Amino acid sequence: MLHGFLPSLLQGAVVTLSLALSAMALAMLLGLMGALAKLSKFRTARRAAQVYTTLIRGVPDLVLMLLLFFGGQVAVNAIALQLGYEDPVDMDPYVTGVLVIGFIFGAYLTEAFRGAFLAVPPGQREAGLAFGMTPWQIARRITLPQMLRHALPGLSNNWLVLIKSTAIVSVIGLSDLMTRGQQAAGTTREPFSFYLAVAAFYLAFTSLSELMFSWLQRRLAIGVRAGNL
Amino acid sequence: MFDFQAIQDNLPLYLDGAWTTLQLLLVSLVLGLLLAVPLAVLRSLRGSWVSRAVWCYTYVFRGTPMLVQLFLIYYGLAQFDAVRESFAWPWLSSAWFCACLTFVLNTAAYTTEIIAGSIRALPHGEIEAAKAMGMSRAVMFRRIVLPSALRRSLPAYSNEAIFMLHGTALASIVTIMDLTGAARTVNATSYIPFEAFITAGVFYFLMTMTLVGLFHKAEAKWLKPLMPR
Fold first, then answer.
1. Residue B167 above 80 pLDDT?
2. Looking at per-residue confidence, does A83 or A229 come out higher?
3. Residue A58 sits in a domain of what CATH number?
4. Ordered DSSP codes for B149-211
5. Does the B21-178 domain belong in CATH 1.10.3720.10?
6. Are A158 and A20 in contact (CB under 8 A)?
7. Measured between CB atoms, does A17 come within 8 Å of chain B?
8. Model pTM?
9. ipTM score of the complex?
């Protein structure tokens, strides 16, 4: 049915998945930092985080990606020339994709993590302090494990949006699922079949993710008493 | 450093692009909402096969990237001779029509779930009161359920509208000269990536902020009875 293009699509799917996972890791790191900055007592940090989240959420991901891909190329080459490299350097679409998507979703996760931090009762942190724990120990043993449960709905939503966003990286030429589909569609002149197959792959990814997140949510909610409505 | 002259020279291109983006946004939001309201009503009929059918539609459209949907409609449909010979071909071969169709179907899927969620979360007292007044189902939906659910959907819908604004950037991939298309043209002709894409980003940012402002106004007007006093 797929004229022998299945292995190619599978390879593309692996690229998409690995891009999405790397971007998510970066986004979680940035999101945690952003949330800490927003809740910090330093006004500069709060301001910087506010500017970051507002700016990123105001501009389409495609524009940010084209900006970093084409602009980054110019900037990197200018720096390379300053350092004495004569050969032109190319931006790697994979790295660009991870950076841009990680950066964008870092802004969204900042809000998710901020809410989750606030959802952990302050008494928990104070109890840790009273035990003489260091701030790092409090974060690792008390705050982070508890906030994970509150952050999970936000994390799962953003992950689902993120994995779909990776499709736009095909625009800058990464050999991901979307690009493989385009190539196969062009070669066989059966665009509908191949874009449908690509859609099926994405649908499988999102469906599986949803199943995993709902399992995780149930696991993390063990021992939480639900209000009886 | 920042080449303002080049941007000034290309300002008409950007303004045309901004107008195209705005048209795409308006068409998709208005038609999407018109489609979503009846679908949400059908979706809220619990346990019926209609509800499940609507769920299938929203599940597929929410689970796959909009870019794939766009390619499936714009490039994919041409695979079938029946489509190419049909009366709809003049429309289905136009990038504008296909982009609008994709955006409408996509945003309608998300909006349907938002409104259906609000209908489901309606305080049961409101429905009880409507029934106690002897309203028929149709009257109840028209007078009680929809006005209340649409108001409550407003905060989530404002997010969807902003996502849609950013989503219209995908139109530039199928050769439409929207804001992103204008930026890509400027970059391709003058090779000034920073100026070209940052200008587009500023335009998008201003549009996003306007949209946020409008939704704040709408919430102040229609959500006031639900606000804590």
1. yes
2. A83
3. 1.10.3720.10
4. HHHHHHHHHHHHHHHHHHHGGGGGGGT--SHHHHHHHHHHHH--HHHHHHHHHHHHHHHHHHH
5. yes
6. no
7. no
8. 0.91
9. 0.89
